[in-house]
Amino acid sequence: MNSLTMGAIYEEQRNLKISSEHSEYEPTGFFDSYDAEAIIASLEEYNGTKSGLDEVAQVLHYTLEEVEMVAKVIYNESRGIPSVTEKACIAWTICNRVDAGYSETITGIITSPHQFAYS
Predict the structure, then answer these.
(1) CB–CB of 106/98 below 8 Å?
(2) What is the C-alpha to C-alpha distance for residues 75 and 113, in angstroms, rounded to an integer?
């Protein structure tokens, strides 16, 4: 999840720079989908390479309840912000805090007092 989020952030920033500088480079849209297999396939096609992965292993490190909690936090924290990048940064912050050991679960991070707009 973290790799896909960081990829989406990088792509959005790249496309914004291309647009603002009126560059001759073409914007990309690899992260228009959140389907990991589709993203990998489009990156392989673009690069002309094969990842060597016949199947992408789907390992869930979170529950459906935690996904809904993150969605509510993103909504509450970024209401009115059109940038997908800034919304992705909220989810990245939550994941980063789990990885850093502030709590062992996404629920623990989100429900910590005075951290996120979640009720």
Answers:
(1) yes
(2) 18
CA angle at residue 89 from 83 to 90, to 5 degrees? 100
CA atoms within 13 A on the CB side of 84: 18
Q: Please tell me whether residue 97 adopts helix, strand or coil conformation.
A: helix
Clarify whether residues 50 and 65 are in a common domain.
Answer: no
Regarding whether 75 and 45 lie in a shared domain, the answer is no
Task: Kindly report which listed range (13-27, 57-71, 73-87, 104-118) carries the lowest average pLDDT score.
Answer: 57-71
Q: Each residue of 19-40: pLDDT tens digit?
A: 888 888 888 887 766 666 777 7
CA distances from 44 to 16, 49, 117 (A): 23, 5, 38
Quote the domain boundaries for residue 109.
60-119
Task: Please check whether residues 1 and 34 belong to one and the same domain.
Answer: yes
Q: Whole-structure pTM over 0.70, yes or no? A: no
